Amino acid sequence: MPRVLVVAQVEDGAKWEASFRTHGDLFKTYGLKGPAEYGVSGNTAAVCVEPENVQAFLQTLRDQATADAMKADGVKRETVNVLVLDKQLKF
Could you give the CA distance from residue 53 to residue 33 in angstroms, rounded to a whole number? Predict the structure, then answer.
């Protein structure tokens, strides 16, 4: 099952993390297999999830509830970069 990585610039990394951690109920609506993994370094935040349905999840990123959550978190929407991790390098 592919994972999805979302990376964006945020106004304040500490504020982003504190606000992001309040969105558990929203994430429950995304159809994810397990928890969201995330990290923040300075003003760059990244979230990695494993959705049951990648296309449905990608649609949720365009929903108003997600836009509102990102705004509350201080995400700079124009910097949001979404990568579907659907390939593997086996070694």
Answer: 10
